[in-house]
Amino acid sequence: MKAVRLLTRWLAAFCLLAAGAAAASADEFRTPSISAVRVEWRAVLDQLRSEISSQPAIAATFTFAGQRRVPAWDPRSTPALVQLNAVTSPIFAGIGRSPVPVLLPFDTAAYLEARANGAPDSLSVSRYQADFRSADLFHAGSSGYDAMFSLEPGAGDGMPQRTFDRPVEVQITGSMLTYDLADPLSGKGEPVKALAAQFPDMRRFIREGYVRYAFTRFGVPYVVSIQCLDSAPRARRLACREAYPVAERFLKALRIAGGQPSRPRTDISSDIAERPAAASADFSYRPSGDIIANSGAHKLGGHADLTAYSQIRFPLEKAPAFAHSQSLGKGKAGESAAEYPWRDNFCEARSFEVGQCAGGFGHQGQDIRPGACPANGEGPQSCDPKRQAVVAVRDGVVIRSTKQQAATLQINTGNEHIRFRYMHMNPSSMDADGLLSGRRVAEGEKIGVVSNYLDHPNGTSRHLHFDVQVFTRDGWLWVNPYTTLVSAYERLIRGRGREIGPEPQASAAVAHALPEDVIRPDAREGSEN
């Protein structure tokens, strides 16, 4: 299996290198290609009717006949869904905002039947959720929904014993929007015989550190995923083969829990690629994909991507800021070493799978260092080098469990379904500040400070690791954030940057070997979502 995946990565590398061979001007920043699906709501109602028919008394309370001459997207055309949303919204807040059917491991009929028989409101919902505890996250928006549930060690009748001794987190996303990537690895996977009757088109595959189950239902793409390690079981890292039965238990329990038709989509427009007209006096950057020579996996190059995936606020509060590798070249020697021009390090070698990189592995994001504080007595404002603010790049919802080293910001609007991840802020500080799943933050709101946490304080240089994930039919995939950050920085400083041509290979600072802390398999940068 591993040999097949390695061969696939090498073949993908040739495709990616060929695709990036043609140079493009930096003035041609692009908007992402996004597709919208049409939901088969009649099939949704038929499925809902079937699911609640196990409790005839409950089924009789639902109204399935829609009103005549009411537009299909009008809630009055689907009264049964309006009733369902009213039942489940106290448990899954805002569930009716989802324009796609919300599939969750929640047995609505059993829940209502127990309530009708006098079950107390305090009764744990896990008994209606195949023993998965209450949702760690549920977020519905104009593109779809995302949810995360956990299964405690030892929970679930008939579950095999696991070596992994912590709760297993299972994520599910259903989306009206999917991002169209030039991705030679897309659509791979194997069928799951145990689930073939329920999900005829299901694919199971391991990609970018997750085992994923992708399927289509009612015309909508869904992906269930669990972070895991494709190796032998360990007490501190979940092996993918241990994740299989957890995911399949989750999938077998999926029921329609809510959602509501919305007005049909006619356009997914954006001004993401908009750039300032005036030139900056000092901001310069190397092209996307121009990583330090030989620093990619198997000494292959970077991934040139001129897509500005979202019009974000820059993630550091103030300029100047510098995007460079923090392990190689500028930024390694000292806190004030970084300067213009910026340089991409999305595909710099790491042990993390990144399908967009030619070598199949990469850094997943971009290193960013704030500018040095001015010397004492200089500068218009005071500056504490240990308190340089990190801010939310958009209005969004946080995805993060306690003690996790990564904080993810999710955006779910009519035009976007995208995630931004921040790393190296101190987990204890994030816990104390309440930067946890479900918290809503506003664009520009301070969410932390630039720090150096990697497994422990002082585990790396003082910088922010920032990355971008978009939803595809293979689930959430990492894409190169470099152009998105260049565009955001230009708006912050109100000036267009100047692209510095690719550095000639003959004169580049060649990295023949990477430091051990960059490539060690258990490095946590990029390992949490």
Notes on the structure:
- With 529 residues, the chain is an alpha+beta fold.
- The protein is 17% helix and 22% strand.
- The chain has 9 helices and 24 strands.
- It has helices spanning 2-19, 41-52, 56-59, 79-88, 108-116, 240-252, 427-432, 482-493, 516-519; strands at 34-36, 102-104, 137-140, 144-151, 168-175, 177-179, 203-207, 210-217, 220-227, 255-258, 279-285, 321-323, 352-353, 361-362, 366-370, 389-391, 396-399, 406-412, 417-423, 440-441, 446-449, 464-472, 475-479, 496-499.
- The strands form 7 sheets. Strands 12, 15, 17, 18, 19, 20, 22 and 23 form an 8-stranded antiparallel beta sheet that branches. Strands 3-4-5-9-8-7 form a 6-stranded antiparallel beta sheet, with helices on one face.
- The protein is globular.
- The two termini are 25 Å apart.
- The relative contact order is 0.15.
- Mean pLDDT is 86; it is low at 1-26, 331-338 and 506-529.
Write a brief caption for the model:
With 529 residues, this protein is an alpha+beta fold. It contains 9 helices and 24 strands.
